[in-house]
Every structure is written in structure tokens, then in C-alpha cells.
Specification:
There is one protein chain. The chain has 11 helices and 9 strands. It is α/β, with parallel strands linked by helices. The longest helix has 16 residues. The protein is globular, with a radius of gyration of 19 Å.
Length: about 290
């Protein structure tokens, strides 16, 4: 397995792979790899000849310095995990190599970034898109795999790749969950034992809304069902619950006339437990989703 620390090194390796007719799959990460990441790597391996995992804690997408400073960085463990799973190359650049002196360009998300995480975390989605463009330029992948836990991010990246004609197939991988339903996240390690026990309220709140959606068109019923689960947990602080169109991300006013079929509507939430902010989402009409 190769390890590269600069975009130029990564590009040279990727160019050689492409010249040899090999298909490159990229799994972008910020490290602290868990079972969810390994599922993305396995997905990429099925779609490509050589898998590249990027490990880079991107400063542009953090709104809070403390969140950036506290983000877990077990790089040795991450590299070992990549090697064990047959990854061909790890791209682990420094911030200085990604954003050298004089770097100015940013990529803005457009209307898809005006909802959910957009107002809540100003500049976050812009930082995500900017680093993804940098990763695409360095790795030059044919396909890139992103988890559906960050659904808005996935949708915006898919739109960007199409709009700017990168020639990269952006694939969303279903959320990987713990046995109790909590979506796997690198941030979960920062939860205290009591907060971790309380965090199961997040997936359960979405479950409650999904049940309500099968018997009511009234969004008040759906949002109320989700909110009541969060409100019943003292450790949880709700930021938002929203039901939206899966493609446009526009929030629904009601569900009258919305087809009760998978892929049409989703529900998403953001909840804080102490200093840890968790996000989750589900397909509103696919209750069997795991």
C-alpha cells in the first residue's frame, strides 16, 4: 500500500493507474475510521480496480475551533485498517499542501446549501465542496463513495460533480448503524456513557416520524412524533427536524399528493448531546431501511 502526503505525489500515482487502464475508486474521509468507513471501502473495491482512501481533517468545514482541535486523529490505526482491507493507496495530506500560501478559491453550494446544515453551520458546506474538488483533482478517481448519513452533503456533491462535469461517478452508500440503531460516526467516541445511551433517541425519533407518515399527511404529526422522542430525553438538545424532497432538498409543507414510495422524501435531524452534535436521516417511506 502506498501513502502519499502531497497532491502532486497522489496525482502522479493516479495518472500511472489511469494510463494502465485501471479504474480508481475514492473514499474521502477525515480519519478515525470505523465500520461504516470499512463498508464504503468495500463498496469502492467492488466498483474499481484500485481504492484510494483520503484521510484529511479539513479545516475549512469546521465552524468551531474546538470541534476541529478535538476531532480524533488516530492516523496509525487508520493506515493499518486501510492496509488490512486491501486499499491500494492512502492520501493523507497536510493542510499546508492542500491550502498553500495564497490559496483563495472556494466552491459555493448554491440553493441546495440554503437549508438544513447551511443556515446552522455557515461556511461548512462551502468547505466540504472545496476540499472535495481538491481531492478529485489529486486522486483523479472514476468513482467516489460517500455515506448517506451526510445526505445533504452527498446530494450537493452529486450536483456539483454533474454541473462541473468532473467525470466522477458519485455513489451514496446506505447508513451503517450500530445494533441499537445509532448511525456510526467518528464523533460517537466523544459521547460519555450516559450520552451514548441517550443518543439512541436520534434514530428512534426518525422511526416515530416514519410510523406517523404512514397514517397522516400532516407534517405537524410527523415532526411532533420525532420531536416528542427527543424532548423525552433530558440529555438531548434538538437543533432541527425537517421533511424534504430527496432531490431538491426543499422542505415539504404537507405530504398530500406525495407518493408513498422510497426515494421521494426524507426526514433529517440534528441533535446535540453535550459538546457532540449528531445528524441522521431516513427515507420517509422505506421503513425497512437500516
Amino acid at each position: 500500500m502506498q501513502i502519499f502526503s502531497t497532491p502532486a505525489e497522489m496525482q502522479a500515482w493516479s495518472d500511472n493507474c489511469r494510463t494502465a487502464g485501471r479504474r480508481i475508486g475514492l473514499v474521502p474521509t477525515m480519519g478515525a475510521l470505523h465500520t461504516g468507513h470499512l463498508a464504503l471501502i468495500a463498496d469502492a473495491a467492488e466498483r474499481s480496480d484500485d481504492v484510494v482512501v483520503s484521510i484529511f481533517v479539513n479545516p475549512l468545514q469546521f465552524n468551531e475551533v474546538s470541534d476541529f482541535d478535538g476531532y480524533p486523529r488516530p492516523i496509525d490505526d487508520d493506515v493499518a485498517a486501510c492496509e488490512q482491507t486491501g486499499v491500494a493507496a492512502v492520501f493523507a495530506p497536510t493542510a499546508a499542501s492542500m491550502y498553500p500560501m495564497g490559496f483563495q478559491t472556494r466552491v459555493v453550494p448554491g440553493p441546495l446549501g440554503a437549508v438544513m446544515e447551511g443556515p446552522t453551520r455557515p461556511g461548512h458546506l462551502e468547505g466540504v465542496l472545496t476540499v472535495v474538488v481538491k481531492l478529485f483533482g489529486a486522486v483523479r478517481p472514476h468513482v467516489a463513495i460517500f455515506g448517506e448519513k451526510d445526505y445533504q452533503q452527498l446530494r450537493i456533491i452529486t450536483q456539483m460533480a454533474a454541473d462541473l462535469e468532473f467525470g466522477v461517478d458519485v455513489v451514496g452508500h446506505p447508513i451503517v448503524r450500530d445494533l441499537d440503531g445509532l448511525a456510526l460516526s467518528s464523533r460517537n467516541v466523544h459521547l460519555t456513557d450516559s450520552e451514548r445511551a441517550a443518543a439512541v433517541a436520534v434514530p428512534r425519533s426518525l422511526d416515530a416520524a416514519i410510523v406517523a407518515a404512514h397514517v397522516s399527511d400532516d407534517l405537524t404529526d410527523l415532526i411532533g412524533a420525532a420531536t416528542s422522542v427527543i424532548d423525552a430525553e433530558d440529555a438531548a438538545v434538538l437543533e432541527y427536524v425537517t421533511v424534504f424532497d430527496s432531490i431538491t432538498l426543499i422542505e415539504f409543507n404537507d405530504l398530500a399528493g406525495v407518493p408513498r414510495v422510497p426515494g421521494v422524501a426524507r426526514i433529517a435531524t440534528a441533535v446535540r448531546f453535550g459538546d457532540v452534535r449528531l445528524i441522521d436521516n431516513r427515507d420517509l417511506f422505506e421503513s425497512s431501511e437500516t
